[in-house]
Design brief:
The complex is a heterodimer of chains A (about 350) and B (about 100). With about 350 residues, chain A is mostly helical. Chain A has one domain. Chain A contains twelve helices and no strands. In chain A, helix 9 runs antiparallel to helix 10. Helices cover about 80% and strands about 0% of the residues of chain A. Chain A is elongated and about 90 Å long. Chain B has one domain. Chain B is about 85% helix and about 0% strand. In chain B, helix 2 runs parallel beside helix 4. Chain B is mostly helical and about 100 residues long. Classes of the chains: A mainly alpha (about 350), B mainly alpha (about 100). At the A-B interface, helix 3, helix 4, helix 5, helix 6 and helix 7 of A face helix 1, helix 2, helix 3 and helix 4 of B.
Chain lengths: ~350, ~100
């Protein structure tokens, strides 16, 4: 596909809007059409960032507990403990499953949000009636392209590295292990005729435990379904933002050659196409995410930004690959003093 | 060719999962003993995942092999000192190689 080479044409919507404002009513209308789409792009992208943030938090968080459960567990823990009671121990007894804060993730999410703020501030300026410089417009265009590529790369990376709700799984596995132990004890009592319970009582307990195992199978499947739901929702939202950004930027790049009627057809079509990405058909969504990464790597219009981002990543990876860490061959280490 | 990043994260997630199971099965005094290490392991896992998602890390087959060994060591750890020792190895490996 041939593309205009003029630098200013690469300046995203803001650049288009500068031209539009100076050209009269029809062009202003064109510019406003793109501005509306750009706002939608920002909204979808911020939703994608929220989805990524939620995904990484869900991956470490524990299952919810009721206030009554928390209270009873606290009482059991604190009254049966032997450790010295201090404020840390009390907090831990109230909630021993609270995951740690991971500053690197917080910084990453803040940085992504800031980039969108930088991108959108240009439009706030336009709405307030201020002049927008060509430099600002070009900066905005670079933001938009970088953000689009970032979203595409993240969608692909997340689809290849799905989330695992480790605390949910852990809790379920512990319950499975306890149930199996109890079941096998009951079986042993039935077989050997030991204990104080009657055979009928033991058979009833055996039946109850079998029912519990069946229910727990359902709970396990729910955990797996929830993991899949989080994966699909996150990949869908990132892909949606990336596709919307890519198509809108490409339209903005052809802006001079499009009249208002064409824009009014193209923009809603882009928005409608993007809104169809719900994650319900995950196989095709995953293919779309992977396909988009190939596209932005090979398309000359996108490959510059993509290569820049990937090179930055590859350089970081290369510097790390120099480091090799040997694991200790003997895993038995002395008890630490704590 | 299998995706080394994905395999690495799978082993790391299962190691973390096994650690959480040990923590859940522990009594409260033992949980007090383990909590800092559990937090450290969770944090390191999450940072490694971020590095992989940002593509600032490319896992090698050697990384996958080491993480698989650590996962097995965690699964087979018979007592808390060995669990703690495995977490220390995990933290050292992840931090030096990935963070």
């Amino acid at each position: 596909m041939s593309r205009p080479k003029s630098k200013i044409k690469l300046a995203w919507v803001a650049g288009v809007i500068i031209g539009g404002v100076s050209l009269g009513g029809c062009s202003v209308e064109k510019a406003r059409t793109l501005q509306g789409a750009a706002v939608q792009f920002k909204t979808e992208s911020l939703a994608a960032i929220d989805a990524i943030d939620a995904m990484r938090k869900r991956e470490l968080e524990p299952p919810a507990r009721s206030q009554a459960e928390m209270r009873q567990s606290f009482i059991n823990r604190i009254l049966n403990s032997k450790v010295e009671i201090n404020s840390t121990v009390i907090d831990l007894a109230i909630d021993p499953f609270q995951p740690p804060k991971v500053a690197e993730w917080d910084d990453f999410i803040i940085d992504l949000r800031n980039q969108y703020e930088g991108f959108s501030s240009i439009f706030d300026k336009l709405n307030s009636g201020s002049m927008i410089s060509r430099q600002e417009a070009q900066k905005s265009a670079e933001y938009a392209k970088t953000l689009t590529v970032q979203m595409a790369l993240l969608a692909d990376a997340i689809s290849k590295n799905p989330p695992m709700l480790t605390q949910y799984r852990g809790g379920a596995i512990v319950r499975f292990r306890k149930l199996r132990q109890e079941y096998q004890t009951v079986l042993s009592k039935i077989k050997n005729g030991t204990g104080t319970e009657t055979l009928q009582q033991l058979n009833q307990r055996k039946s109850d435990l079998e029912n519990q195992a069946g229910e727990m199978m359902g709970q396990w499947q729910e955990i797996k379904q929830e993991e899949q739901r989080i994966l699909e929702a996150t990949v869908a939202q990132c892909t949606k933002a990336a596709i919307m950004g890519k198509e809108l930027i490409e339209v903005a790049n052809r802006y001079d050659n499009l009249d208002i009627a064409q824009l009014n057809t193209l923009i809603p079509r882009i928005l409608t196409t993007a809104s169809a990405f719900t994650g319900r058909d995950y196989t095709s969504l995953k293919l779309k995410a992977t396909g988009m990464v190939s596209q932005i790597q090979t398309d000359p219009f996108w490959s510059g930004v993509t290569t820049k981002l990937l090179n930055r990543a590859n350089n970081a990876a290369a510097s790390r690959s120099q480091i090799q860490v040997a694991l200790p061959s003997d895993p038995t280490l002395p008890l630490r003093n704590r | 060719m299998p995706d080394q990043n994905r395999l690495f994260l799978q082993h790391a997630a299962h190691l973390l999962n096994e650690l959480e199971i040990r923590y859940l099965e522990a009594d409260f005094d033992e949980q007090v003993y383990l909590k800092d290490d559990l937090d450290q392991a969770m944090s390191d896992f999450s940072k490694a995942k971020l590095a992989i998602l940002k593509k600032t890390v490319t896992c090698t087959s050697e990384d996958v092999k080491q993480m698989r060994q650590l996962r097995q060591r965690m699964s087979n750890a018979p007592n808390f000192p060995q669990i703690v020792s495995t977490i220390a190895s995990f933290a050292s490996f992840v931090r030096s190689r990935f963070l």
